[in-house]
Structure to design on (248 residues):
């Protein structure tokens, strides 16, 4: 049951978001990070296979995780998988068009097909921005400034694109994050691009019988996404895989 104060158009969009996010779906995520501050810079790269159930990430298998030119140790990879499967409060973006979170935001229509949102109470996992929707009230894009920034960051933005990746199933297909700030005496920044491809539906019993998620079938076109975005690891963030948000 959605809060009575939610505008009717937002309520319809939230119900459509819920309808088009059902099922057990496998995907492959690729995250690229570049961070710099003064004379220092670094590139990180992460690839994993994942399974989501009704929009919730339930299984992760890391295929590659490099920090600069160094492969992450097995213990760190296990911790990373665990952090995805059991996120802490504020790790996952509380989307304003998700029925679970619409009551946390205020809304304002800017023009046909675009709505602005602001959190009633700023917190980790929330932000202020806009989302756009199509004629069938599917959210096709959203962008926002996080309410709480990573350590050392003074400004940041997140931009997402959503696409129908399977019949009656939508997901974010491209995400970009940018941050600016200072580290000690140096100004710096971080940029992240996250893509997800190879979406495929699974039978529910797969979750109970497979110790690892299968490699999902490839689609004919590369789909760029992330419903579960990772915040940057960088000089602007205190630990490798910490940060403001992942995404629905």
């Amino acid at each position: 049951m959605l809060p009575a104060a939610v505008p009717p158009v937002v309520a319809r969009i939230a119900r459509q978001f819920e309808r088009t996010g059902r099922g057990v779906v496998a995907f492959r995520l690729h995250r690229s990070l570049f961070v710099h501050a003064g004379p220092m810079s670094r590139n990180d790269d992460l690839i994993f296979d994942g399974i989501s159930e009704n929009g919730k990430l339930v299984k992760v298998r890391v295929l590659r995780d490099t920090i600069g030119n160094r492969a992450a140790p097995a213990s760190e990879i296990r911790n990373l998988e665990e952090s995805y499967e059991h996120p802490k409060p504020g790790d996952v973006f509380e989307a304003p068009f998700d029925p679970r979170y619409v009551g946390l935001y205020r809304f304002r229509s800017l023009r046909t097909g675009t709505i602005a949102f602001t959190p009633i109470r700023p917190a980790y996992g929330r932000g202020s921005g806009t989302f756009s929707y199509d004629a069938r009230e599917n959210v096709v894009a959203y962008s926002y400034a996080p309410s709480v920034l990573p350590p050392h960051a003074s400004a940041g933005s997140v931009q997402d694109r959503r696409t129908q990746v399977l019949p009656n199933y939508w997901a974010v297909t491209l995400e970009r994050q940018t941050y600016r700030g200072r580290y000690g005496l140096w100004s710096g920044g971080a940029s992240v691009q996250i893509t997800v491809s190879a979406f495929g539906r699974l039978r529910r019993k797969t979750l109970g019988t497979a110790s690892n998620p299968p490699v999902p079938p490839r689609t004919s076109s590369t789909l760029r996404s992330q419903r579960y975005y990772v915040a940057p690891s960088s000089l602007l963030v205190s630990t490798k895989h910490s940060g403001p948000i992942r995404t629905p």
